[in-house]
Amino acid sequence: MAQRKLGRTADQRKALIRNQVTNLIWYGRIETTEARAKEVRRAAERLITLAVNECANTVEATKQTHNEKGQIVTLNVINDAPSRLAARRIMLSYLYELKDMPKKDEDKADYKERTAGIKYPVVEKLMRDLGPKFKKRNEEKKCVGGYTRIYKLGPRRGDAAEMCLIEIV
To answer: Which of 117, 113, 125 is nearest to 27 (CA)?
Structure first.
């Protein structure tokens, strides 16, 4: 399938789409032009489908380590299956890295506790929140896809470009 050129060179166009897809996944909705929204929809739907297919692929492993006293401690660890790890790496290669910001009434210790162990928050949001949510929806409705919605907002003042609001359903 051919993609829209959006009046930009290839590297600028790819960076624009990657940025908008990252922000769409992180914030849930963005406002942009109609042509950009349709391109963002294509990329976002592919990443969400990847998350839906791989969100539950985990492997439980037993790990033995030594503690401070020299005793052997056995831990049960849940790791990604190889296909889920590959999907996570595809997402990491496409999405930009955003840092989770502290909430208004959150102190430093609570923020560190909330973000502990989360290295890539956008990918984690895809795998932990959106993937299971849409997997459940797909099983209930017996459908696949349709994870985004585009609302037309009317022409932009200045150049009369058709503006749209694209959001994750």
So the answer is: 125
Q: Kindly provide the b/e burial profile for residues 31-47, where b requires at least 16 CB atoms within 10 angstroms of the residue's own CB.
A: ebeeebbebbbebbeeb
Using CA atoms, how far residue 41 sits from 8, 21, 25, 30, 165, in Å, is 18, 8, 11, 11, 11
Helices 131-141 and 34-54: crossing angle in degrees, nearest 10, is 90
Q: Rounded distance, CA 33 to CA 55, Å?
A: 31
Kindly tell me the sign of the dihedral angle through the C-alpha atoms of 77, 82, 86, 87: negative
Please give the span between the terminal C-alpha atoms of the chain, in angstroms, as a whole number. Answer: 25
pLDDT band (50, 70, 90) for residue 55: confident
The strand pairing partners of 60, in sequence order, are 78
Look up residue 51 and give its two tokens. 């998350």
Partners of 66 in the beta sheet? 72
pLDDT for residue 100: 83
